[in-house]
Write a structure and sequence with these properties.
With 321 residues, this protein is mainly alpha-helical. It has 14 helices and no strands.
């Protein structure tokens, strides 16, 4: 398949059927993926799942779950992150189907929100109550819905603009109780996940993707290019996960630490590697994890795959640090 958005795509009935198909267990290798999906709904969901697993497996990430261990978390593991990504995938397929031939509207927003809540329940079931991907369901669900709505235009900025329009509508069935992210956003004046979406995902479109492309142009190994994309996001994002767990001290430590890695050549340089590992130790000491930045890295990898017309994202794992 040369492109995700091709003429003669199968009818939406196939997307509906795929939305309820039972996912096959996968272990991360391209050979085990089988042939690429033949309809856009299934392909978008597969790319979203691959993006979540690729983000989780990327190593070494400061404070985050990776191949070395749980990072600053006490209830998460790499195996749990993989199971969570598989559990979420069918709901991303359904969100994509729900958005085909649909323009952003209050009705579409409410429909996607209901599916997102179902995805959260599925996530909590397979993780025994651990929040592995609540923020990622919001980010990747919106982006997959917007991509399905824009199925003739694989441009990341156009997809992000459509996602912003969808996010701008209120969810009429939202609980009166605020999430951790909403509480922190109000307390510290941070944009939070919804603000990021309403603004068109600037930390993906204007930060993560350019950093990823720059790394590739410089012939950096793919894990290094992805780590540098994460660090660029961390250096600029008011990450509500950091603010919730560690306040302004944690956010400042993460931002300054990530900026120092970038200034000293990024994850691929000797001094950059030293600073990266020092940042990891500092976040572990503070007991905090930049989960919002990780979600946006997954969104970056997702939109990058769509832009390139990929059917396989690839889990490149560890950088040789």
């Amino acid at each position: 398949m040369e492109t995700l958005y091709r003429k003669g795509a199968p009818p939406v009935e196939r997307c509906l059927a795929s939305a309820f198909a039972k996912p096959t267990a996968r272990r991360g290798s391209e050979a085990e993926e089988g042939p690429p999906p033949t309809d856009p709904c299934t392909l978008l969901a597969a790319l979203a799942r691959q993006a979540l697993i690729a983000e989780a497996e990327l190593t070494p990430k400061p404070g985050l779950v990776d191949r070395r261990g749980p990072g600053a978390h006490t209830d998460l593991s790499l195996a749990l992150m993989r199971r969570s990504a598989l559990a979420i995938e069918p709901f991303i397929r359904l969100m994509a189907f729900q958005s085909i031939n649909e323009h952003p509207s209050p009705r579409l927003r409410a429909t996607l929100a209901a599916t997102g809540r179902a995805a959260e329940r599925a996530m909590l079931r397979v993780t025994n109550g651990s929040n592995t991907h609540k923020g990622a369901i919001w980010t990747l669900g919106l982006l997959a819905a917007a991509a399905a709505s824009n199925q003739l235009n694989p441009d990341p900025a156009a997809i992000a603009r459509t996602a912003a329009l969808i996010a701008s509508f209120e969810d009429p069935h939202q609980s009166s109780s605020s999430s951790h992210g909403q509480v922190v956003a109000q307390k510290f004046g941070a944009a939070g996940a919804r603000g990021e979406a309403i603004n068109g995902f600037p930390h993906i479109v204007e930060v993560g993707l350019p950093a990823l492309r720059a790394g590739r142009r410089a012939h950096a190994p793919e894990p290094v290019a992805r780590l540098d994309a994460l660090l660029n996001i961390m250096a600029r994002l008011d990450d509500t996960c950091l603010l919730y767990r560690g306040g302004k001290l944690a956010l400042q430590a993460a931002k300054q630490g990530a900026a120092t890695v970038i200034a000293d050549g990024g994850a691929g340089s000797l001094r950059g590697r030293q600073h990266l590992l020092a940042l990891d130790r500092r976040l572990l000491q503070l007991g905090v994890s930049p989960g919002g930045s990780a979600d946006l890295l997954a969104g970056t990898l997702f939109l990058d795959a769509i832009e390139q017309g990929q059917t396989w994202l690839g889990s490149v794992g560890a950088a040789s640090l």
